Amino acid sequence: MDPHVATNIDKNMNRYIAAVELEKSPRLINHGPTVLVSARHGGVDDVMAAAWASALNYDPPRVTVVLDKDNRTRELVERSGRFVIQVPTVAQMQLTHAVGTRSLRADPAKLAKSGVTLFDMDGHDLPFVAGSAGWLACRVIPEPHNQDRYDLFIGEVIGAWSDTRVFRDGHWHFERADPSWRSLHYIAGGHFYAIGESFDVSETTTPGHAAS
Amino acid sequence: MDPHVATNIDKNMNRYIAAVELEKSPRLINHGPTVLVSARHGGVDDVMAAAWASALNYDPPRVTVVLDKDNRTRELVERSGRFVIQVPTVAQMQLTHAVGTRSLRADPAKLAKSGVTLFDMDGHDLPFVAGSAGWLACRVIPEPHNQDRYDLFIGEVIGAWSDTRVFRDGHWHFERADPSWRSLHYIAGGHFYAIGESFDVSETTTPGHAAS
Most buried residue, A84, B8, B28, B175, by CB count within 10 Å? Predict the structure, then answer.
């Protein structure tokens, strides 16, 4: 087993991880964060970054994600029919950029060098990235035309969890968590935004620019 | 013509709108904003909100968006084969929520009541929502299986523009614009986040929670 794979996840972290209701689990990515996609096949684990992921449906819970043909992670997804989407945090920005730019084909030590610690979830033979804010374990719904023509994969969520310090009771609580827990939203060229201020629509006033 | 359709857009707004290179245009939604989807067919215009939109490809520029079967906008998209994705701002939060909850079928005055002002772009017979931060005019790439089974539409970007006060030279400049220009990221129950702080990955330190 690779030295970076910690099967006994730090107990302090573990006690904050709780299951998310499957029917609410797409909310983990409703706000459009950049995600980490991980997969396992034949004793190989890989993790990549993906800015192009989206919820697709609540019931059954489904998501889409774009996986380039170049990526080793994609090959593991195609072979295993499973993947994990995790929501990385500002504290994981360097890690997110590293797994998004390093290749496991070129560097077998990619994950260790990128600062990735993996852990297990009972009942799922999948690699989960420690320190993330949320995790969606997914089964690929095979759509060969979408996969071949568009690099577009559809997954059904078969397990979901969050770190309750930032997502609990079916809702994000970024505004009450440390800023290092905020989700990442990638643009290009190493440039990220963190998710920001929260608003409830009932508190807003009239439409803006259009009326001004 | 509907009274809310302003063909002569406010000159002060118009001078800030500039074309975006098509190959960079998916960057307008890379960071996962909630978008407004608009469409026109047979003299009818409608606008809806969609949290589930994503970039799909840069060259050719393509995007995905999930359009519920309930929506009149979807019907207009299917009939015309065209739609606009626009990136609304914090100043348009009430408008975004209003077009996302009101139905044109139930209320023919939906757009006016929601505070929507539409304008034209030369060469495109499509309704554009004034006051947004960016616009992607799209042609539907027909994929009947995706549309029927998943409510998933794929569009090729055939025109792109931004308000240069917040997106110019192929990049967002939220950090240098008024906070009312920030993009919206919807969760559920009327709860939005605005995009927040900007980071360059070179400025960050070691990976966070996983290592702490």
Answer: B28
User: What pLDDT, on the 0 to 100 scale, is given for residue B13?
Assistant: 65
Judged by a CB distance cut-off of 8 A, whether residue A135 touches chain B is no
Instruction: Judge: B91–A208 Cβ closer than 8 Å, yes or no.
Output: yes
Residue A208 scores a pLDDT above 80? no
- What does the pLDDT read at residue B14? 82
The helices-and-strands tally (H runs, E runs) of chain B is 5, 14
Tell me the domain boundaries of chain B: 11-197
Q: B residues 136-165 near A, CB within 8 Å?
A: 143, 145-146, 150-152, 154
Minimal Cα–Cα distance from A146 to chain B, Å? 9
Bridge pairing between strands B167-168 and B53-57? unpaired
Residue A51 predicted with pLDDT over 90: yes
Cβ within 8 Å, pair A190-B200: yes
Q: What is the pLDDT of residues B112-164, one digit of tens each?
A: 999 999 999 999 999 999 999 999 999 999 999 999 999 999 999 999 999 99
**ipTM entry:** 0.90
B59: CB partners within 8 A, 6+ apart = B23
Classify domain B11-197 at the CATH class level.
mainly beta
Q: CA B159 to CA B166: how far, in whole Å?
A: 18
Shortest distance between the Cα of B80 and any Cα of chain A, in A, equals 23
CATH architecture of A11-203: Roll (2.30)
**B11 vs A18, residue with greater confidence:** A18
Q: Which residues contact B203 (CB under 8 A, 6 or more apart)?
A: none
Contact A168, A161 (CB under 8 A): no
Say what the pTM is: 0.91
Q: Which of B33, B152, B206 has the CB atom closest to A115's CB atom?
A: B206
